[in-house]
Specification:
Blueprint lengths: L1 E2 L8 E4 L2 E11 L7 E8 L5 E7 L3 E4 L3 E11 L2 E6 L5 E5 L15 E7 L2 E6 L3 E9 L12 E6 L4 E5 L7 E5 L4 E5 L2
Antiparallel strand pairs: 1-6, 2-3, 2-6, 3-4, 4-5, 7-8, 7-10, 8-9, 10-11, 12-13, 12-15, 13-14, 15-16
Length: about 190
């Protein structure tokens, strides 16, 4: 058991029987009454956001969650088959664990999978991936006002907005959290 002083962003705790991850917290000391922590959490399984107020010094049920890097092998129906790169053990996880990041994932990428008592509960794609543009309209010469963007289709089928100078066949770096173009890949 831990107390509220041990709170940190990214920490996992069990709240009302649900496994939650701390997104943000704020310690407040009002003029009247005792100090408290206002904690924003998200359910690790469903992704639902919630907030709670804990008294300062209150005990919280922190949970040890293991992060394992696993290689994405292939898609099997609605599941993704992953392999632990150290033990070569294979598991299947629902693709819904990745949410919107799924459209930037291709085979052989390394994903971070969180385990609670040996059961996968969350998965994260790398923050940035390098993907090839399979189709993009040619840019219009001279149209440089206000950083114009054009749509481009990536090798995974995802569509992102890219600057006019980026062409089909080039590799670009994409932020999987926001789905935005970062830069040309070197």
């Amino acid at each position: 058991m831990a107390t509220t002083q041990d709170l940190s962003r990214g920490m996992f705790l069990r709240y009302n029987g649900q496994l939650c991850q701390v997104v943000d917290y704020q310690h407040t000391m009002p003029g009247k009454g005792g100090a408290f922590y206002q904690v924003k959490m998200k359910n690790a399984i469903t992704g639902k956001s919630m907030e709670n107020r804990f008294r300062s010094g209150e005990t919280i049920d922190d949970v040890r969650v293991d992060l394992v890097e696993m290689q994405y092998l292939y898609k099997d129906g609605d599941n993704l088959m992953l392999m632990n790169t150290e033990t070569y053990e294979q598991i299947g996880i629902p693709q819904t664990m990745l949410g919107d990041q799924m459209k930037f994932i291709k085979e052989e990428m390394i994903l971070g999978v969180y385990f609670d008592d040996g059961n996968p509960i969350m998965a994260d794609a790398p923050n940035h991936v390098i993907l090839e543009i399979t189709y993009s309209e040619p840019g219009i010469k001279g149209d440089t006002a206000n950083n114009p963007l054009k749509p481009a289709t990536l090798e995974t089928g995802a569509e992102v907005s890219v600057p006019l100078f980026v062409e089909s066949g080039e590799k670009i770096k994409v932020d999987t959290r926001t789905g935005e173009y970062v830069e040309r890949a070197k």
